[in-house]
Amino acid sequence: MSKQVILVTGASSGFGLMTAKALAQAGHTVYATMRETVGKNAPRVIEIAAWAKAEGADLRTAELDVQSDSSAETGVAHILKEAGRLDAIVHNAGHMVFGPAEAFTPEQFMQQYDVNVLGTQRVNRAALPHMRKQGRGLLVWVGSSSTRGGTPPFLSPYFAAKAAMDALAVSYSTELALWGIETTIMVPGAFTKGTNHFAHSGKPADTERAAEYETGPYVGIADKALKGLAALEPSDADPAEVARQIVQVVGTPFGKRPFRVHVDPSQDGAEIVNAVADRMRREMYRNIGLENLLTPRQ
């Protein structure tokens, strides 16, 4: 397996940090990017540096706020200047919110889309000119089984944003294939333990509206939804499997990488629905004479 230079967004915790460490342990040069590296994430930067030294791994940190055009441009430019190239991007940055859809303000929905969708676009616009010139690259999008699997209530802003990101990834895949840039969409299920995704989820800004769902006919439903998700999850469900699968994708030879990889211990049905949707996508491209876009070319 050749050593690659990899950028991971949102790598201060959760899937991002797990993935950055796993890729570095596999022998790659990895940039764990995050915002506020000299602010609230300064302790994490120190921890990562200590871990990398102890493990003998090439894991570095870099400032990159996916909600800022200039930060994305500066972060990618720093990596290119320091490492000389950029071979893969793991679009991981994301934030979860929990509560009734009606109680979230439009601004909160915009913030969800800004992180989970526009954040990937900012990083792509900063990095893709280099990758296209390079003639080889890989985009790994960390999506969610919620885009086509079971969708329990009270997670609508997150689900909607992840669905938009999935659609964007699908469109990018064929628009980049002839530039030699591959696409893999990771599809994790609802891991309720082992990450801070649920523990640190945001809440609706309109607390009065949210309270109406806590006292009316929906009383107890939110708690039942969370407990139900946790009950579906096998006791041995390990979120680190997402990181291990990403390592495997990165290590797979060019042209052989899978379009989707599902890591869903709860089996919420996304794998079945995605298989049908992706088949129809392939048939559509064949029918319009663009089948060559389904396979990346060097």
CATH superfamily membership: NAD(P)-binding Rossmann-like Domain
Biggest sheet: strands, sense, closure? Answer: 7 strands, parallel
Shape: globular
CATH class: Alpha Beta
Indicate the percent of residues in helices: 40-55%
Low-confidence stretches: none
CATH architecture: 3-Layer(aba) Sandwich
How far the N terminus sits from the C terminus, by CA atoms, comes to 18 Å
Structural class: alpha/beta
What percent strand?
5-15%
**Radius of gyration, in angstroms, nearest whole number:** 19 Å
Instruction: List the strand order in the largest sheet.
Output: 3-2-1-4-5-6-7
> Kindly state the mean pLDDT as a whole number?
94
Number of strands: 7
**Could you please say which CATH topology applies here?**
Rossmann fold
Query: What's the number of structural domains?
Result: 1
Account of the 3D structure:
The chain is an alpha/beta fold and 298 residues long. The protein has a single domain (5-294), classed as NAD(P)-binding Rossmann-like Domain (Rossmann fold). The protein contains 9 helices and 7 strands. The protein has helices at residues 14-25, 42-55, 69-83, 106-134, 156-176, 207-215, 221-232, 240-251, 270-287, and strands at 5-8, 29-34, 59-63, 88-91, 137-142, 181-188, 260-263. A 7-stranded parallel β-sheet has the order 3-2-1-4-5-6-7, sandwiched between helices. Strand 5 (137-142), helix 5 and strand 6 (181-188) form a beta-alpha-beta unit. The chain is globular and about 60 Å long. The protein starts with a strand and ends in an 11-residue tail after the last helix. The mean pLDDT is 94.
